[in-house]
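Appendix B, Record 12. Input sequence as logged:
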Amino acid sequence: MIPDQWYPILPADEVRNDKPTGVRRMGQELVLWRDLDGNLVCQGARCPHKGANLADGRMRGDSVECPYHGFRYGPDGACKAVPALGSGARIPGSLRVPVHPVREAHGLVWLWWGEERAELPDLQIAPVVADNPKVHSTLHWTRPVHYTRYIESLLEFYHITYVHRDHWFNYIDYLFLYGTARKLGLDGKERYLAATKIVNHKLETVTEGQTLRYSFDHQEEADPSNTTHYVITFTFPCQVHVQTEQFEATSWLVPVDDGHTEHILRWYEYPTVKPFLRSERLRRVLPRASLYMEKWIQDVQDVRIMERQEPKISEGGVSKFIPVDELNAKYLAIRSRLIQEAAERRRSAGAAAAAGAPAAAGEAPEPAGGPAPAGKRPAPANGRRTAKAAANGEGLSATGANRAR
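Logged structural output:
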């Protein structure tokens, strides 16, 4: 996992103020909820008392209640009530949960995974996604593969001829997406399977170290008129946007842990249908149907291959790339560099802290043993200054970045 990045973790409309929402991301169990004013809160889900998961609890006003013994934790992470001790009891300061910086943008909840800072950087979202005016639908699901393998499956599309060829649903693609009007779409499968060559491929750096754009034509060698043009825009740490003549979609491949990835997929409306459907609700129907087909058919076919790939984690040097894999190679090289740079920042900050010197601007020192104690290093979360706690051994600060996956 690449430290010091914003990761989208789930659609924002799935977090409510009447019940807590639990997710596992970045190898951590998290609980999300909204206070009475609708402000988003993200905390470590483990109750420090006896380790129950707060996502299984209830909302009590501006606090989340542990399902085991009713301990209540407020937006700042501090325990507000211990029923077994009575209303007038003094509550130990160690009874608190870590609070993680989150933001809402573009219909998603974004989690900062990295060192706490006085000022966190802006979200990195490519304009082709951030400024996209098209009606869309969003769905998400978990797959048992490492996120690097998942990402690289979307950085090229010359696998589709071989992976997506035999299922009954693919005949719908053949008919409507690849078939010609002259033959009423019945030549779709023949054209689909014949287009195997990648030509006119070009890799560009849009934003240094953050966004890459790769364009290419997927073409039939014997008939260059049988061509599909692709533009793939990748933004670190995990956003892949795909544009073709037939469809447009955005994927966020978010680490759940080293063995699982959350795929948040956004599918945009089909331009050919828009003139016939004035209602946005109706124009969402086809994208929604496409999402379910992706979840239960197309994506399953890809994952079946990925589950058996070796090694499970893709890194530089493990694959013998060919020239048309240039986006994949660039992604792995930049990923490695970002992980290394994060590790170097932590070593420098740790050395400065040990010497009693101030950390570099915008950075806070990270002790070798883990996150700083509660209250020592505030970080903004939805405009509030909150602190993570080491009392329960949790935290999303990216210590040990040199071993990050």
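The radius of gyration is 24 Å.
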